[in-house]
């Protein structure tokens, strides 16, 4: 697939005079305070894979699991206890994270212990959570830390 380039994005509309001439104020003049060079291009496959990774992380329970695994590897019952979510739902979310390459499970006797595959993934989640907390702090009072609602939305379990 072709790389996505800044040229493929829609250009801003320019108003024209009735004779088709551009008005002087319509011409783009880059701001001297910012770098106007285009960002490096990424291969389309890389962008698709990044989107799939973000989709795999796009559920509150999965975000909470990643935050737990950032601290230490954990087995399912430890995640159930820490998050206050039913075991089948934790297992379902772990399957999604495992298939996306976010977590890896290793059998230790009768239990499977899960860990993050890569610390980059924790940074994505930590930064997203920090941003959400900052945004929430500006718009409404912060909620007390409460366990995740096991069935906070029907869509969450359907997308898992």
TrEMBL record:
SUPFAM superfamilies: Winged helix' DNA-binding domain (SSF46785). InterPro entries: ArsR-like_HTH, HTH_ArsR_DNA-bd_dom, Metal_resp_trans_reg, WH-like_DNA-bd_sf, WH_DNA-bd_sf. This is ArsR/SmtB family transcription factor. Residues 23-41 have a biased composition (Basic and acidic residues). Keywords: DNA-binding, Transcription, Transcription regulation. The keyword DNA-binding applies. Residues 42-136 form the HTH arsR-type domain. Residues 1-41, 132-160 are annotated as: Disordered.
């Amino acid at each position: 697939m072709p790389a996505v380039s800044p040229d493929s994005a829609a250009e801003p509309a320019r108003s024209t005079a009735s004779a088709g001439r551009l008005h002087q104020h319509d011409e783009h003049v880059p701001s001297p305070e910012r770098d106007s060079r285009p960002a490096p291009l990424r291969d389309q496959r890389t962008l698709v894979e990044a989107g799939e990774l973000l989709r795999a992380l796009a559920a509150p329970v999965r975000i909470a699991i990643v935050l737990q695994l950032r601290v230490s590897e954990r087995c399912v019952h430890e995640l159930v206890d820490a998050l206050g979510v039913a075991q089948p739902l934790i297992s379902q979310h772990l399957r999604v994270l495992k298939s996306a390459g976010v977590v890896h499970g290793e059998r230790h006797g009768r239990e499977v212990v899960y860990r993050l595959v890569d610390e980059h993934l924790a940074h994505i989640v930590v930064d997203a959570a920090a941003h959400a907390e900052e945004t929430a702090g500006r718009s409404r009072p912060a909620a007390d830390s409460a366990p995740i609602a096991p069935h906070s939305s029907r869509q969450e379990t359907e997308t898992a």
